[in-house]
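A common beginner's mistake is to predict each chain separately and then try to dock the pieces by hand. The better habit, illustrated here, is to supply every component at once so that their relative placement is modeled jointly.
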Amino acid sequence: MPKTLFDNVWDAHIVRPETPDTPAVLYIDLHLIHEVTSPQAFTELRQRGLRVRRPDRTLATMDHSTPTTPRNALGIIPVIDPQAIAQLDQLRKNCADFGIPLFELGSANQGIVHVIGPEQGLTQPGMTIVCGDSHTSTHGAFGALAFGIGTSEVGHVLASQCLLQSRPKTCAVRIEGRLHPGVTAKDIILALIAKYGVGGGTGHVFEYMGEAMRALSMEERMTICNMSIEGGARAGMVAPDETTFEYVAGRPYAPKGADFDAAVARWRTLPSAPEAIFDKEMFLDASSLAPMITYGTNPGMGIPIDAPVPTPEQMPDPGSRQELDAALNYMKLEPGKPLLGHPIDVVFIGSCTNSRINDLRQVAHHLRGRKVADGIRVMVVPGSQQVKRQAEEEGLDTIFKAAGAEWREAGCSACLGMNADQVPPGKYAVSTSNRNFVGRQGPGARTLLASPLTAVASALTGVVTDPRTLLD
Amino acid sequence: MEPITTFAGKAVALPLDNVDTDQVIPAKYLKVTDKSGLAEGLFTVWRYLPDGTPNPDFALNRPEAAGASVLVAGRNFGCGSSREHAPWALAGYGFKAIISPYFADIFRGNALKIGLLPVTVDEETYHELLSHIEEDPETSVTIDLAAQQVILPGGRAVAFPIDNFARHCLLNGIDQLGFLMQQDEDVRSYEAASPITLNTHL
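With all components supplied together, the output reads:
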């Protein structure tokens, strides 16, 4: 039977096939870990007297509970929260005891786990990649099968380099047409989730395909794959192509010379056969999209930026009417009213969705020689120390600071309310992150998810602003 | 792990769709390096008023919900973050099973690993359960894992799907890591044949 990209990667990683009584034993090529979801897994290993099977296929970074405050006079990023200190110390000890390489807080390669994997060339087509983090789906942009796991499974992979998995279903996500100016990859994924819902992909692995996908850069494909989980799909994949190979080539952990050529030859065999059959299909016309923004408390509650907030009467069933009521009550937004022009308090540019160099360049381009609106806090948080260095080499930091924005150290920052970077209760934030759940960015925080372009347009005016107004 | 076979428990209803794991347990509780204190953070935004006192209107705080061990929840329960702290918090609070029309994939897998049963039922059964709980807040349901059945008040038995291997492990108190560790020989053969040469020790 003609195979999909997913089938090709899945089948190549079967250590023991699925039977009616046991799931497949799936080999994991790369295991990324961080401070939050790994400590209890190491405890389990110690209690059972187990070692880490492949420390050379494991890599740790510090990102979630870390501060992004500027370095002190000694060049150190100070951690003040005692619980965060203990968690980071525990990761340091676990990595030392089990021989796992660690990108320490503030060190040259540290950053958000889903930013550093790709930028270091660890993430490669055809691999299986897991991490105790749902946004592991990001790495699928390279044609890898990458998904988030819980801490029990982190322990499984540490000890055995394998996972027990039942084969998921596949879903072809066709994104045809060309994006209009001012509409970005972030708008594609927000529109897709708004159309099919936050549970639409449950039980499936997405494969994004079509004209619009082929035209995107690796960074843009990562933005889309990153939010697959927000559509309910544990993983999202894009077939590797010349754009992928060009991105991977020359990165520190990527194969070199003849090995690279051999790898590319292997990677060229991964894409889905033209006649491959998927369990389900989704479709989006990129040429019909406007910039998107969310108004509610899950990422599926999104609208074109010039559309009014939905009314309960527009909802198809009592469940979704109740959900909308609760969301608008939390967000203090009125049904039927436009979001455009709504005052905001904070703009957050960062997270594993939108903190890469292209995102920062786009923001800097529009901030150059301008000032953010009075009273608006604008946080620009690079996804990694490498992104930070590159941005500084290009002078982007000077532009951000001159415009009145904060230029911070690398980390997850205000995406998840786990460190000091939070949105105050009741305040509105236009955020380039991935989740607008109740309290996600801090207790009582009101999150409006959008693209970096919409974020910078809104930062300049202090109200929700259509990024197409920035275009010449 | 303790074997799970059949148990009966009081059911409490949380009939909201898309309850994400940030609602089950917010990120501020995730700074622990063990599993302590998570039950206190369960549904914290709904369970407590801004002054820190229990919210009397929240289902779990009503006196008749005391001792409940079965949560009847809306569609797509456990979406969002992969944090296993969510099932840890639910189990720590005393829940043994969650009944829902469907679960988010990662949550379902995490819950099965720790013996918190994710029980998927059809829409009709879901609504029937909600009606029972509304009429009688002391409603109890029986879950028979061996037979893969939920027995509703009144005696109707409804089958639920569960992965055979997970069911076997839960019934016998076997953990999945032990099974994985027995695959060592196959893993070695696989590794010897794999063309991927990645080394994180650069």
